[in-house]
Amino acid sequence: MPRPWVRPPPKWQGEKAVIDIDLLVKPLTDLLASFGAGVLPSGGAADSLRATAEAVDQVHAMGRDSINAMSNAWQGEGADAATSKALRVQTSAATISDRGNDMATLVDKAAGEIASGNKDLTAIVESFLQQATSLGPALGTPEGLAVLVGSAIDHLQQGVKVVNRVQGELDTHTSAMSALTPPPTTSLASTLASSVPTQAIGTAASGVQQLVSTASSLVGSGVSAMSGLMQSSTAPVSSRTSSSAPTNPGAATENAGAHADTGTGVKITLPDGSEVTAPNEKAATAVRAALGAVGTPYAWGGTTPGVGLDCSGLTKCSYEEAGLELPRLANQQALGSPVSPGDLAPGDLAVWDGHVAMVIGNGKMVEAGDPVSISSIRTENIGMDFYGFYRPTA
């Protein structure tokens, strides 16, 4: 039976051992060489994502102008249906733009984690070499050899800790990136009905086609960007790029945010999972209150959510939650700033001579019927005179 191989003891020359320091430091230098610098090239993934988001913002602005032009040239139930669908496209555009910027931020963060790991590994290699140099003549003694080998093991363990730390950080960023990759809830390719006259919304249709194209490239660029960063780090890290976390599109999201068209605002996640941006905290609070009243039975003169509400009672009590007093009657709530259909935002009111409803975004509004429910934005209401859209918080 053959004997197992055993490493021979170091050769001695008199009282000195022949110690190969390069061999001891090689695992660390190999780790550093394969780790990656985390330096993103100019015009790389993050810049491309931001450029795409900016292009989608331009489509969003073009869609807004098209909706306004359409509302001036076309009225009636068909126009209301087209406007509601076009506003859903606007929500998708805003969502895609925000996702692009969020993806770019994640790419930058991941690159920063890799750069930090590279710096730490470099310091570990230098620390080992400095310790080896400081041993001086002791390197030629058995005691010096023991110290140096122990130091090499200790520094390698430190290096592994850095790798594990960066790996965990990149796993977190990968999960966040995965949460950003699902397409918006609105189907971009089918948002405009075939009944909509092309002469009224030709520009909007062109914008939708561009939006479909940029949306596809945006999602693909985000995934490729994170994948590329992961592969630029150590092999153990890149092997885990498939890590992902399940998303919950219906989770409540109520944080301050910003968008090119609305400025600084407050983001809200609607019951259908779409994310919209209210112009301010008061409008967001009113929308949340109105959504909380969905299902309340209709009651003439009612002002109590969960018990009974009429149309103006719903909007009045919802804005009271936000600290804003509205008149009691529907036709008296045409106050604040008039808003064109293309500029509608959550919290705006649609006012008729005998009815009022609250816009919640994504082409929808909430209103008191029997019961309080969500419906598509419209300007027609059983022959009533439509006063217009108004922003009470303006």
From TrEMBL:
Residues 280-394 form the NlpC/P60 domain. Transmembrane segments: none annotated. Keywords: Hydrolase, Protease, Thiol protease. GO terms for biological process: proteolysis. Pfam families: NLPC_P60. GO terms for molecular function: cysteine-type peptidase activity. Residues 232-247 have a biased composition (Low complexity). Residues 232-277 are annotated as: Disordered. The keyword ATP-binding does not apply. Belongs to the peptidase C40 family. This is Hydrolase. It comes from Nocardia panacis. The lineage of its organism: Bacteria, Bacillati, Actinomycetota, Actinomycetes, Mycobacteriales.
